[in-house]
């Protein structure tokens, strides 16, 4: 899907619209100026002689408005704008395929799983009333209640952090400290650092010192440099924004810690950081254009598309969509599957099972590895699990 042409066309329309609006405003300003000057002349007239002059004043105004010729001045810019606007929908229609149903395959979905994913998406977005309505109508309320309460807790913590209240976050981090340690997380220290900076900024040096002894000292053995910087900030109590430590006041620090807490919260729950529904939709949107192009080529072979077990064309997705190891056989150039797993050969190189089967003539003879001169016996090849 070529978006460059659409963007260029949109920019042209925007430019023409700004030019047209500017010209209209210029003409209106001229008309307004002439009318105001004429009104001033008319208001200054009191006697009969002046009233006779009103006709000439109005005649002068009419002549000046005719010289301004607003219609002729506006006509050219308006034509250019209309021309750009008429071309834009055609470019959009040409670049986007309105009917995407031909890239759809008839797959039997597990209704329970789909409903669960949609319901959980609402709860993950904080749309608890919508989630309740959806789960109630689909009958999935029992399985969704646990997730609802979990994400209500998360949104309560995040909302409190938005109001600079770290108590719920600190309570959660301390309660789950044993689960956070295996992840190598220093979230608790980051939360204490935010709280310490808030105390310092408010000008309470004694309280900040007491807080550092009680909450920061336990982290000194592994985070001495960080603790030393925080102690240096004590010298600027109440005026931290004018100090070398002003970066500690950046709102980005709160956003970073909030994001990390959210990721760890989901990790402890065994949930992904991003909603599965959002990830699926985004991946589908990115993968749709090559599928549509492929279907245009296979316009008369829809049955073949429906019977394929794998995607007929490579769909390139960014690394953010890679959730597990993918092996592509260097011989067949196909991704490994459960039926065609990667196989470790005696020489240490890896090929897919089907490639080994073909090269060994169904296991009847040895073959040379494509990467080294070693002779390989297919019977000695073992499935490789990443």
UniProtKB/TrEMBL annotation:
<keyword id="KW-0862">Zinc</keyword>
<dbReference type="InterPro" id="IPR013083">
    <property type="entry name" value="Znf_RING/FYVE/PHD"/>
</dbReference>
<dbReference type="GO" id="GO:0008270">
    <property type="term" value="F:zinc ion binding"/>
</dbReference>
<dbReference type="Pfam" id="PF13445">
    <property type="entry name" value="zf-RING_UBOX"/>
</dbReference>
<dbReference type="Pfam" id="PF10607">
    <property type="entry name" value="CTLH"/>
</dbReference>
<keyword id="KW-0479">Metal-binding</keyword>
<dbReference type="InterPro" id="IPR024964">
    <property type="entry name" value="CTLH/CRA"/>
</dbReference>
<dbReference type="InterPro" id="IPR006595">
    <property type="entry name" value="CTLH_C"/>
</dbReference>
<dbReference type="InterPro" id="IPR045098">
    <property type="entry name" value="Fyv10_fam"/>
</dbReference>
<dbReference type="InterPro" id="IPR013144">
    <property type="entry name" value="CRA_dom"/>
</dbReference>
<dbReference type="GO" id="GO:0005737">
    <property type="term" value="C:cytoplasm"/>
</dbReference>
<dbReference type="InterPro" id="IPR027370">
    <property type="entry name" value="Znf-RING_euk"/>
</dbReference>
<protein>
    <recommendedName>
        <fullName>RING-Gid-type domain-containing protein</fullName>
    </recommendedName>
</protein>
<dbReference type="InterPro" id="IPR044063">
    <property type="entry name" value="ZF_RING_GID"/>
</dbReference>
<dbReference type="GO" id="GO:0043161">
    <property type="term" value="P:proteasome-mediated ubiquitin-dependent protein catabolic process"/>
</dbReference>
<feature type="domain" description="RING-Gid-type">
    <location>
        <begin position="329"/>
        <end position="372"/>
    </location>
</feature>
<feature type="domain" description="RING-type">
    <location>
        <begin position="329"/>
        <end position="372"/>
    </location>
</feature>
<dbReference type="InterPro" id="IPR037683">
    <property type="entry name" value="Rmd5_dRing"/>
</dbReference>
<dbReference type="GO" id="GO:0061630">
    <property type="term" value="F:ubiquitin protein ligase activity"/>
</dbReference>
<dbReference type="GO" id="GO:0005634">
    <property type="term" value="C:nucleus"/>
</dbReference>
<feature type="zinc finger region" description="RING-Gid-type">
    <location>
        <begin position="329"/>
        <end position="372"/>
    </location>
</feature>
<dbReference type="GO" id="GO:0034657">
    <property type="term" value="C:GID complex"/>
</dbReference>
<keyword id="KW-0963">Cytoplasm</keyword>
<dbReference type="InterPro" id="IPR001841">
    <property type="entry name" value="Znf_RING"/>
</dbReference>
<feature type="domain" description="CTLH">
    <location>
        <begin position="150"/>
        <end position="207"/>
    </location>
</feature>
<dbReference type="InterPro" id="IPR006594">
    <property type="entry name" value="LisH"/>
</dbReference>
<keyword id="KW-0863">Zinc-finger</keyword>
